Amino acid sequence: MPQLLNLSRAARLVGVTRVALQKKIKDGALVSFDGMVAAEDLLRVYPDVQFEDNTAFERVAQIKEKAFGKRVFERILPDKEVLAARLTGLSKELAETKVSLSQYQAIVDGLEKQLRAWDNGGEEMQAAAASLRMWVHQELAARDAQNKLPNLTIRDSFLRVMAAHVKIQPSGHEFFVEGADTLLEAALRAGLALNYGCSNGNCGQCKARVVSGQVMKVRPHDYVLSEADKASGCALMCSNTAVTDVVIEAGEAHLASDIPLQHITAHVKSIDQAGDDMLILNLKTPRNNRLRFLAGQNAILQLGHALSAEFPVASCPCDDRNLQFHIRNLPGNPFSDYIATRLTNGEAVTVEGPKGGFVLHEDSTRPLIFIAFGAGFAPAKSLMEHAMALDVAESVHLYWVVSREVNLYFPNWPRAWADALDNFQYTPLVAGTDLETAAGRQESLVSGLLQRIIDDYPALGGFDVYVAATESLLDAARKWLLGHGLPDAQLIMGVVR
Question: Looking at residue 71, what is its pLDDT?
């Protein structure tokens, strides 16, 4: 019986993305069995993998951690009780494996005994016995020669101690629970929009049914599960973690309409100047009152009693306590003036949202192209971080279109991702003139700039293209893209004011 691994765990073991494995399966290079792959086949496709080195995966993990504003080492080790339970489970499996091995050894020994009995027969029987004996020894020797397979098993065992795999029904989404994360925290880090409310054990909105596997309560909660809930295996995701690999039945938000409008009070974490005229406003929400939103959506910020404005959330839902907004510091604009001159760290800001439907089409596995005009980089950034967290796209290419090079106000982010991730590319496109005020010339300017995309990808029909811009630039981009073969259903547009 071959050792089978789910795709998510197999991808981690060899240091590639889940999408990369799916492409190997689609191309026929790797065989799958009901969404699982055999360890032997994995080693055949990736023969040069070094199991003492996980550089590729760590590279991706570290750039994600940096981009999402989290510390890499703050959640490495699981809770000691969870760790003990996982080790106990593995010890039990080891004992069962030893019993199975001893049984197989007894069969091999019995076969050898039978073959020796055949040696006393006629020449034909002796030849058959010799041939069968040689085959058995060759097979055993071949297994011994696969010295990487034990390393793969050891690495898989270590991964199972450090991180439990979770599959959600009915969506089929998967994620890993690492360190001291709860089920909810781990799902959010993975970019999944599970249903939840307070995230503090009070409301019960994150209740899920455990279909298989073992979970453990690691945080107290005031919400009282009914006897029916307990009997059906329900648990609060904000208070429980996964001990073993588990399957849960839980609700998720897939559309903008699936998330209710919320009013929360966040506090200023920092205000940074980016470029000549852009302010980066970083807010932090209370642990028990986060903002639920889908990547690419907007929120209304209210300062005091009189000033309010709507902006795209530039951060990823996977880090929902840290909200980032990119705000142009326009002369004479009361809102940006207040942020630039009066707003201080720790001050309260009312956030209302989410709003808008410029969201990721998660069901599609096509490669993604993002075209961000100016400040349209903000929602594009959120969508790209979300896409990379979900690991659903074969590749992501960002084209950031600006009037002048100084308008690339956040250049280190896309450069760092392009350096760190093999499936992420970044191309800045500079017009050399003001795109917004070029009345009557926008279509020709956009056409000239976007020609680079056709040079890179002549067949646009194989991509999903996301465009974030002002209305006039969106109209020009839409005409150009549809005119160059992009199907209308694969064009997703978001208006940036």
Answer: 42
Query: Residue 121's CB: how many other CB atoms inside 10 A?
Result: 12
| Torsion over CA: 158, 160, 164, 166 (sign) | positive
Asked if 326 and 299 count as a contact pair (C-beta separation under 8 A), the reply is no
CA–CA separation, 63 vs 436, rounded Å? 33
Q: What is the dihedral of CA 70, 72, 74, 78, to 10 degrees?
A: 120
The pLDDT value recorded for residue 149 is 54
List residues bridging with 324 in a β-sheet. Answer: 282
Per-residue HEC secondary structure of the chain comes to: CCCEEEHHHHHHHHCCCHHHHHHHHHCCCCCCECCEEEHHHHHHHCCCCCCCCCHHHHHHHHHHHHHCCCCCCCCCCCCHHHHHHHHHHHHHHHHHHHHHHHHHHHHHHHHHHHHHHHCCCCHHHHHHHHHHHHHHHHHHHHHHHCCHHHHHHHHHHHHHHHEEEEEEECCCCEEEEECCCCHHHHHHHCCCCECCCCCCCCCCCCEEEEEECCEEECCCCCCCCCHHHHHCCEEECCCEEECCCEEEECCECCCHHHCCCEEEEEEEEEEEEECCCEEEEEEECCCCCCCCCCCCCEEEEEECCCEEEEEECCCCHHHCCEEEEEEECCCCCHHHHHHHHCCCCCCEEEEEEEECCCCCCCCCCCCEEEEEEHHHHHHHHHHHHHHHHHCCCCCEEEEEEECCHHHCCCCHHHHHHHHHCCCEEEEEEECCCCCCCCCCCHHHHHHHHHHHHHHHCCCHHHCEEEEEECHHHHHHHHHHHHHCCCCHHHEEEEECC
pTM: predicted TM-score of the whole model, two decimal places:
0.78
pLDDT digit string, tens, across residues 338-347: 999 999 999 9
Residue 57: name the closest of 10, 3, 5 by CA.
Answer: 10
pLDDT tens-digit series, residues 164-217: 899 999 988 899 888 788 999 999 888 898 999 888 888 999 999 999 999 999
- Token look-up 């690339």 returns 408
pLDDT 10s digits, 27-48: 888 888 777 888 778 878 887 7
182 and 219 Cβ atoms separated by less than 8 Å: yes
Task: For residue range 102-133, list pLDDT tens digits in order.
Answer: 776 777 777 777 767 776 777 777 777 777 77
| Tokens linked to 246 | 């588990």
The C-alpha torsion from 105 through 111 and 117 to 121, rounded to 10°, is -160
Closest of 179, 173, 175, 191 to residue 218, by C-alpha: 179
